[in-house]
UniProtKB/TrEMBL annotation:
Name of this protein: 2-amino-3-carboxymuconate-6-semialdehyde decarboxylase like protein
Database matches in InterPro entries: ACMSD, Amidohydro-rel
Organism, as annotated: Verticillium longisporum (Verticillium dahliae var. longisporum)
Family: Belongs to the metallo-dependent hydrolases superfamily.
Domain Amidohydrolase-related: 2-151
Bilayer-spanning residue ranges: none
Length: 151
């Protein structure tokens, strides 16, 4: 929830408009932001104070615009359902990058190959969400980070 609150406050304060070159990578697939962006947008459009101050109009960039232009999300969500929502909210799989919770949550166990279960679960979520071996999966699993970080 903290991620969603922080991004919403930055948006309402005009940070993304004042610093159009700003790019952010949000942890946990943006938290609840992909799920609540529509509600945030609705609250803005129906806020009497913002309307009265002229901050709501046709030329205004929406929270969706910010998500699709200035925000990247990690793919640490452990579920293809949440990952699909993050992909949709951010405008495409090219806005997501694979990640894990290590070292914050060190692995409590490994699978039979000795792989950390958290890595396996997130990799499986990517495969289920966009198709194993697909171009989108390749991007999420490393290609997007290489492109974004200019490696």
């Amino acid at each position: 929830m903290e991620t969603t609150i922080a991004v919403a406050r930055m948006y309402l304060a005009g940070v993304f408009d004042r610093v159009p070159a700003l790019r952010m990578l949000l942890a946990h697939s943006g938290g609840t932001l992909p799920f609540l962006a529509g509600r945030i947008e609705s609250c803005i459009v129906h806020d009497g104070q913002l309307v009265g101050e002229g901050k709501v109009g046709a030329a205004r960039r929406t929270i969706w615009d910010v998500l699709r232009e200035q925000v990247y999300l990690d793919a640490v969500i452990y579920s293809e359902v949440g990952l699909k929502a993050a992909i949709e909210a951010s405008g495409g799989a090219d806005r997501l990058m694979f990640g894990t919770d290590h070292p914050f949550f060190p692995p409590l166990g490994t699978d039979e190959q000795g792989t950390w279960e958290s890595v396996t679960w997130n990799a499986e979520a990517v495969s289920k969400a966009v198709g194993k071996g697909s171009e989108e999966a390749g991007g999420i699993m490393g290609g997007n980070a290489i492109r974004l970080l200019r490696l």
